[in-house]
Each structure stands twice: as C-alpha cells, then as structure tokens.
Amino acid sequence: MKARTRISSVRTLAATALTAALATALTACGSSGNLPAPSGSGSHSPGALSYQQVIDGAPVAPDSAIPAGSLMAKIKARGTLNVGGTDTSALFSLKDPVSGKLTGFDAGLAQMLAKYITGKPNENLVLVTADTRETLLQNGTVDTVLATYTITPARAQKVAFAGPYYSSGDAILVAKGNTDITKVADLANKTVCTESSSTAANDLKQYAPSAHVILFQTNAECEQAVEQGRADAYVLDQALLLGDSVRDPKVKVVGQPFTTEPYGIGVPLNSPEMKTFVNDWLKTIQSDGEWAKLWQATIGTVLSGDAPTPPAIGSAQGS
C-alpha cells in the first residue's frame, strides 16, 4: 500500500476554478476554528509569498539541535524524511496528476520539517489511512505522520503527538441536491458514513445516536456512497470535506462544525526526543512567521483575512 513521491519544487496551490468552488462551499457552510470567512476574490493577500518561496525560505536546524543517536540524526544521515500522509486533500495535501508533486498545508509542513532536519525539503510520502497510521509509526515505516491527524488520549497511548498545529471540526457532506440535512440534528434516523478508526465514528454515537452509521476505509469510498445515494450524509473533519466539495461538484458541505478536532504530528512513542524536536520546530516557524506564510500560500489563497493564530503547543489532551 506504499506510494512514494520525491518532493522538490512545488507549484502554487490554487487555480481560479478551485478558488471559486471553495468560496461557494465555504459560503454555504460558514467558518469555524482556524477557518476564516471566505474571500470574494480568492486572491493572495498583498505581499504573500508563493508556495515554493515559503519552502525555499524555511529554516534549517543548527547541528547542535540534532544529537547523535537520535531519530533526527538518523533522518539527517538518510537525507530524507519518511512521512505518512495523503495525496487527495485539496487544501492540505494534494498530488498534481501531471507533475506528481504535492502541495497543501500538511504537505508544506512535511517539506519544511524535512528541510529543517536534512537541509533540503526531501520527503518520501507513504500513503496512510485512519486504520494504518499508528501501525506505520510503530513499525518504523514512517518517521512521522502529517495527515490531518486528530490528537486523542487513546491514540496517544500508541503514538506520540507534537502540536497541535491546527484545529478543525466534524462537519457534514451531502449530495448537491439534498435540502433535508443542514445540521447535525438532521442526521437522526439517516444513513451516515464515515471513515473507520476516525474520531467522527465515535462522535456520531454522541451527536447522532439514532443514525445508521456505515464505515469505510477511505475518503473516496464515503464520498462515492453519498453520490450514489447509499448514504444520506458523510461526516468527517471540515477541512477534508471542503476539499471533497472543491473536487466534486456533485456534493456540498452544510452547517457548522459540531466538534473541535486538534491536529497533531504523529511521531514514534519510543522517540521522545523527536516529539520535543518537532514541538520546538513548530514554535520556531510560528514565532518567525513561516507558519503564517505557509497558511497564506495554501489555505489563504482561497480564504480572506490574516492567518489565524495557531493553537498552543501541548494544549490538546494527549499532546
């Protein structure tokens, strides 16, 4: 199930069509958490850097920050960061079908972290699902997971989390013509799909206890179930569902997020030095403005306003 992609130069994320589609989707569902209001034009803020400029300007760690024998030292010697991630999320990690390159907020953070450790944004992507993330960290296949990975105490028993670095929340995706479902209360007695092992699977037990929940392994399977009428709605993180609505004109995101989902960077539980290192790196890119520059070059290409304030490091239970 591995798919590896060598990351080098990367194109700017947004195109005009994507901008218009996402602005429409966001207007329909409102904004929450880290997502500001939609932009009317979807253009860069004045002075915003391109995606590649952000990656090129990202810092490199001093040698003193990488002790001998640490996981970071092994990554530096290898020259490549092995990252568990995805390649289908329009805002966070999307693979260009022509060039094979990745862009997005998570993709950019992975490339910046790789550069911080090795001096170059050399990342090997290993595709993960909600069912495989912990296993791939535990068996050493990946050094870290950057995949809109919600921090929970249960998951923190299996892997360690740096961050949180972003915050989203569960939202609802329905077929474009659906007018019956606009909020979580409307999911009562409906057929609702979500990804197995996702936090949404448990959230639905609390917020929509009478819904008939069906589980799939991937985002694509859930989206297809809604399109085909096998499910009335799909519940998952708003950030991911917005990406689906950008790519697929047959679906839309409705209502407001009804949970808070803090995203963390998964690292091996047996490498506490890696968690400390990544947390220190997050603090560095937040304080020097690199985090905000990346937001502007990705999510900020289609949303108006200044970059949001990132959540405090260690503020989520399990981080």
Automatic annotation (TrEMBL):
Q: Which InterPro entries match?
A: Bact_solute-bind_prot3 (IPR051455), Solute-binding_3/MltF_N (IPR001638)
Which of UniProt's keywords are assigned here?
Signal, Transport
Pfam families named in the record: SBP_bac_3 (PF00497)
UniProt entry tagged with the keyword Signal = yes
| Bilayer-crossing regions | none
One GO location term (cellular component): outer membrane-bounded periplasmic space
Q: Which GO terms describe its biological process?
A: amino acid transport
Question: Where would one find the signal peptide in this protein?
Answer: 1-30
Q: Give the Solute-binding protein family 3/N-terminal domain ranges.
A: 80-302
Keyword Transport among UniProt keywords: yes
| Family to which the UniProt record says this protein belongs | Belongs to the bacterial solute-binding protein 3 family.
State the name under which the record lists this protein: Glutamate transport system substrate-binding protein
What species is given as this protein's source? Kitasatospora kifunensis
